[in-house]
Amino acid sequence: MLQPTPEKDPVSARILQILSRNGRIPNQQLAAEIGLSPSACLRRVQELERRGAITGYRAVIHPAAREAGFTAYVTVGLSQHSNEAQQSFERACLAAPQVRECHNITGSVEYLLRVEVRDLESYRRFHTEVLGAFPQISTITTHVVMGSAKDDRA
Description:
The chain has a four-stranded antiparallel sheet. The mean pLDDT is about 90. Helix 2 (about 25-35) crosses helix 3 (about 40-50). The longest helix has 14 residues, at about 40-50. It has about 150 residues and is an alpha+beta fold. The chain has two domains: about 5-50, Arc Repressor Mutant, subunit A (Orthogonal Bundle); about 65-145, Alpha-Beta Plaits. The protein is built from five helices and four strands; from the N terminus they run H-H-H-E-H-E-E-H-E. A hairpin with a 6-residue loop joins strand 2 and strand 3. Keywords: Activator, DNA-binding, Transcription, Transcription regulation. GO terms for molecular function: sequence-specific DNA binding.
């Protein structure tokens, strides 16, 4: 559980900012950029991890290395607005490797998905065999990504 926010602590906020850009930065370099001793910097990072401000570290894989050259954002509306229908849909998204993100949103539809697949034909199969197989979906709208001027996802 995340405890008090580091925004009130400018040093911790700076550590989080640097680590969000480069999670593999050596502690010595991070300490130098922050203006702390390496031991004090390491203690700060460990405290941020303990408090839950840092939830993990991961590699950012280029989509081509995952054979994911086609990205679409898909909005999904459910015909049933029950907790059971939502949980069932979310389980289906968790089981589908093509779904890289699944967000329950407000507005005229219930979900926003980021889907990554090899190509348009792969997306067609996903649309038909995965989304089309879910009985409580009432609407599906696909927005194909043609380019990304900025993408800060890690």
